From TrEMBL:
Name of the protein in question: Uncharacterized protein
Pfam families cross-referenced by the UniProt entry: DUF7262
Organism: Halocatena salina
InterPro entries: DUF7262
Length: 161
């Protein structure tokens, strides 16, 4: 290959390379004419959304769990467990045998109920033959448990005054 041929090849190569570069540059300019958001703008938008989400969580808050009824149910269940203890004279099953048995055992069981519960709680025992304790409120949370007995069920209600 002579020097003249080498120059021709170099010129052709250079022309081709220039045309390719020109096409790519033109495409880049044409593509940049479209509306595109910069990466910084995207980061700002995402940051604003995150800050808004956190602030709305703080302002609106989260609902408080209903732990009062759960705690009251636990008090009622514990009271029932202690009253059902066979080693004591306080058995709720004796309240359901007859109305006379209820009349005889009600004062004893009422006193025992007041001994078992903390002072800030009120309680009621309901049986088929009557009730012991205070009337339960309709507008306050009430914890309840039921003790099944052979002659009917005994329900224990516990609430904060």
């Amino acid at each position: 290959m002579s020097n003249l041929e080498k120059r021709r090849i170099d010129r052709r190569w250079t022309r081709w390379l220039r045309s390719v570069v020109r096409i790519r540059i033109e495409r880049t300019i044409a593509n940049s004419a479209r509306a595109q958001l910069s990466l910084a703008m995207m980061e700002v938008a995402i940051g604003v959304l995150v800050v808004f989400a956190v602030l709305s969580g703080l302002v609106l808050g989260v609902p408080t769990p209903e732990f009062r009824e759960t705690q009251l149910d636990a008090y009622a269940q514990d009271t029932a467990t202690l009253l059902e203890d066979p080693s004591t004279q306080y058995r709720p099953s004796e309240l359901t045998t007859s109305p006379s048995a209820f009349e005889r055992r009600a004062p004893i069981l009422g006193d025992r109920l007041e001994e078992l519960l903390p002072e800030n709680l009120m309680a009621r025992i309901e049986t088929p033959h009557g009730a012991i304790g205070y009337r339960s409120p309709t507008d306050a949370p009430v914890g309840r448990t039921t003790i099944p007995t052979p002659n009917g069920s005994v329900q224990i209600l516990v609430w904060y005054p």
